[in-house]
Amino acid sequence: MNWHCKHTWKQSAINTAWCLLGCSIGDFVTIGIFQWYQIIWHPLHVMVLATFNGLLTSVCLETYILMRRQAMTFNSAFKIAIGMSFISMTAMEIAMNLTDYLLAGGAQLVWWVVPVALTAGFLTPWPYNYWRLKRWGKACH
Q1: Domain region containing 89
Q2: Which residues contact 49 (CB under 8 A, 6 or more apart)?
Q3: Where are the alpha helices (DSSP H) in 37-73?
């Protein structure tokens, strides 16, 4: 496989960024609510919930984008959003939460950790998204 195609890297970066937007909304909002309202849960439990919410918001965002941009029905768009990017989203969420855990102790929004977690969340699935796009011509957006 050709790993040197600039066009595919660019398109896969755009796809990965959309995924990151959806994942980070659910993830950071969940952690932020726990932090803002000082809800006491074990950090691992907060991170699991944040991961679930990140996956949920990403699937919702991608479903919406597919429905708007490609005029798909909800069912078709939802199936594609789940099927094509769930591995990518899961890897992204794990990378973001692991980064948060290692740098801030987990389930904390610390200003300097957020960009590092976002970078880890972007870089982790990007090669997979490139491969999937190059190999199968499949993307979520």
Answers
A1: 11-136
A2: 30
A3: 43-70
Residue 91 included in any domain: yes
What tokens appear for 123 in the block? 């870089």
Note whether residue 128 is domain-resident.
Answer: yes
Query: How many domains, the chain?
Result: 1
Measured between alpha carbons, how far is residue 55 from residues 5, 40, 85, 112 in Å? 29, 23, 10, 23
Q: Amino acid identity, residue 20?
A: L
CA 77 to chain centre: 17
Which amino acid is it at 33?
I
With a cut of 50, list the residues of the chain below it in pLDDT: 141
CA angle 66, 88, 136 (to 5 degrees): 70
pLDDT tens digits along 37-63: 999 999 999 999 999 999 999 999 989
Lookup result for tokens 């490609």:
70
Which 8-state DSSP code applies to residue 81?
H
